[in-house]
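Journal club side-thread
Mid-discussion, someone asked how the predicted structure for our own chain would compare to the paper's figures. Pasting it here so we can look after the session.
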Amino acid sequence: MIIQLFNPPQFYFNGLQYRMNPPLGLPILSAVLREAGHEASVTDLEALGVTPDAFGRAIENQRGNWPDVIGFTCLTHNRRGVMDCIKAARSKGYYGYIIVGGPHMSIAAAEPIEWGADCAVVGECEGNIAEIVKQQPSGVVTGKREDMPLIPAPDWEHHTPRPRNYRGNEPHIASPEGIAMWSRGCPHNCTFCGNPVFGHTRIRYAPVVNIYHDMAALKEQGCRAVFVYDDELVGLNSEQSAWLAEVCREIAPLGLVWKAQGRCNEKTPPELYKAMYDAG
């Protein structure tokens, strides 16, 4: 099947264009779907400055060669963009399968169905996204988590625009900047956090070899810096510290600089900070 995934626009109604880093969920799902034999791609409508009206015209111009599946990722702040794009596609006669995922689905999963989508997926779904697009269920579906070793690196080869075309997150340490995620989960459930998917869940670590290949792929894309987007990368326990130290030893030869977030405290061994520093 031909599957086109989209990050929706929100600049057209709030006046601020988001060009810091691309969302990671879509290129990862594109990689999963390609491994399953589908022709998947990702387009960031926000980064490209494409309005829902322009999206609808593109769908209309594509008539006769429509994708089998259109998918959107949805955050609360861009839900209007998802809604307007779905309505634009349906108004042009698109009758294919429309699926919506993303963190907002953990809060209001029924909304996309009201906008004209066929399916809303709650939570992580690398474990069953291929099954969903094949069976095309209607309504709200619960995603299935995949084991971290089986989650592929993001598919940047079929992502428009490429990672090097984004501005990156402050503080800016080098440019172009890419984005990566080395672990998933967070033991906390803070009310101020914008992450309803990974919060209050067990930390799951990606294999070191997977992280190396992910970082090497970003370097091949022309990135000189990487924002490691984990919720809690450092400071939780000795298991995490040992894993991160091994990651640092492996990625150091790549010569990239990177930044991350986490809780730095007296429990973290000083040699881990030294390993992080030596790795960029």
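Post-session note: The chain has a mean pLDDT of 94.
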